[in-house]
């Protein structure tokens, strides 16, 4: 299977740069994965597609304000660091620009020394391991010094940092937002609950790899990035009851989907668990954990469009994307939504 099989033409002006004022007013393309039929709605119409007894599964990860601009202590050279993953205690895996300036032992200072980062290991592709040195609570310091690590295709500044968080974000640890969830408001979630739909939460901390295109021509040669996930016994209980009662599990986003499918692949049942997953889902994969999917429009030739194609069929998905382009839908993180039933 070739990476080129998941390419499509996208005019640059359809890559949305800023979030819509009212989250739930985004447009929503509804795709029937059996027939390929398409409807054009708004996200608040999701209520019409959810049934009493269904369970909506959301990823409650919270994005770190992890983009830091500092200076190299020896030379005052400007250095940008993006915190990617907490390895242990105050040791972090980071992406650095310009990486050539950072060697083992280099110290980068932020906020007049409020936070310092000492390089302890050099890796490929601009990745470094740092020990963070500070007094106080790290997340409070990051709130003062850091900014949201927006995807590379977004060039506008974000006026309100909270717009790159879901309204239910709770567990700090992501380098990127689970963007399918950005369409929900607290009011819409309440309406969904009032309809008798269950809501449960999993956690998957989104890593930098979510932005990286597949660079090999044969997708089977692609190496997936690893991300931390966890699922509680309470969430598992709801999911098991949903299946037993013959209702549907609606996954919000590819991150939620990867978590649920990781659990089902490991245990063939929903079970409390945590760890790291590098599951790669592409056409031919048999889904075990979800019945419907809410997602955004993804980058050409990305692992995300491959996952969606596995769920709804490559031809259906590429046709839906072609129609979305012709109808001027907004694409990527701040773009519009798809509901695949």
Quickly describe the structure:
This protein is 19% helix and 28% strand. It has 341 residues and is an alpha/beta fold.
Structure write-up:
It is built from six helices and 17 strands. By secondary structure, the chain is α/β, with parallel strands linked by helices. Helix 5 (303-312) packs across helix 6. The strands form three sheets. Strands 2-1-17-16-14-3-12-13-15 form a nine-stranded mixed sheet. The chain has a six-stranded antiparallel beta barrel with strand order 5-6-7-10-9-8. Strands 4-11 form a two-stranded parallel sheet.
Question: What are the defining features of this structure?
Answer:
Thrombin, subunit H; 19% helix; 28% strand; 341 residues; QueA-like
Distinct helical segment count: 6
Note the gap between the termini. 25 Å
CATH class of the largest domain: Alpha Beta
CATH topology-level fold name of the largest domain: QueA-like
| Helix and strand composition category | alpha/beta
CATH architecture of the largest domain: 3-Layer(aba) Sandwich
**Domain count:** 2
Give the arrangement of secondary structure elements:
Elements: E1 27-31, E2 38-42, E3 55-59, E4 61-63, E5 67-72, E6 78-88, E7 91-97, E8 107-110, E9 115-122, E10 127-134, H1 138-145, E11 171-174, H2 186-194, E12 198-204, E13 227-231, H3 233-244, E14 249-252, H4 254-267, E15 273-277, E16 292-296, H5 303-312, H6 314-326, E17 337-340
Parallel strand pairs: 1-17, 3-12, 3-14, 4-11, 14-16
Antiparallel strand pairs: 1-2, 5-6, 5-8, 6-7, 7-10, 8-9, 9-10, 12-13, 13-15, 16-17
Helix pairs in contact: 5-6
């Amino acid at each position: 299977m070739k990476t080129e099989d998941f390419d499509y033409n996208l005019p640059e002006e359809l890559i949305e740069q800023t979030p819509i004022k009212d989250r739930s007013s985004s447009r929503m393309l509804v795709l029937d994965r059996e027939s390929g039929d398409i409807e054009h709605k708004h996200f608040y119409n999701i209520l019409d597609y959810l049934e009493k007894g269904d369970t909506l599964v959301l990823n409650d990860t919270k994005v770190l304000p992890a983009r830091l601009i500092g200076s190299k202590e020896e030379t005052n050279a400007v250095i940008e660091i993006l915190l990617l993953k907490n390895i242990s205690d105050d040791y972090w895996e980071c992406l650095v620009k310009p990486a050539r300036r950072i060697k083992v032992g280099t110290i980068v200072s932020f906020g007049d020394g409020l936070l310092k980062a000492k390089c302890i290991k050099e890796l490929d592709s601009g990745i470094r391991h740092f020990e963070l040195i500070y007094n106080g609570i790290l997340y409070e310091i990051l709130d003062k010094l850091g900014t949201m690590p927006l995807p590379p295709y977004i060039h506008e500044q974000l006026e309100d940092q909270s717009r790159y968080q879901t309204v239910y974000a709770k567990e700090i640890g992501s380098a990127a937002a689970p963007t399918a969830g950005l369409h929900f408001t607290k009011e819409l979630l309440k309406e969904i609950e009032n309809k008798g739909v269950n809501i449960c939460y999993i956690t998957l901390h989104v890593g930098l790899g979510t932005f990286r295109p597949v660079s090999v021509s044969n997708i089977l040669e692609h190496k997936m990035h690893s991300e931390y996930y966890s699922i509680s016994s309470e969430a598992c209980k709801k999911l098991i009851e949903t299946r037993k009662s013959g209702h549907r599990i609606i996954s919000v986003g590819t991150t939620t989907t990867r978590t649920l499918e990781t659990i089902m692949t490991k245990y063939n049942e929903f079970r409390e668990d945590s760890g790291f997953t590098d599951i790669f889902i592409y056409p031919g994969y048999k889904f075990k954990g979800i019945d419907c999917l809410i997602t955004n429009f993804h980058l050409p030739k990305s692992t995300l469009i491959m996952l969606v194609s596995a769920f709804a069929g490559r031809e259906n998905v590429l046709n839906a994307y072609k129609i979305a382009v012709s109808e001027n839908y907004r694409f990527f993180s701040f773009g519009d939504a798809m509901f695949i039933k």
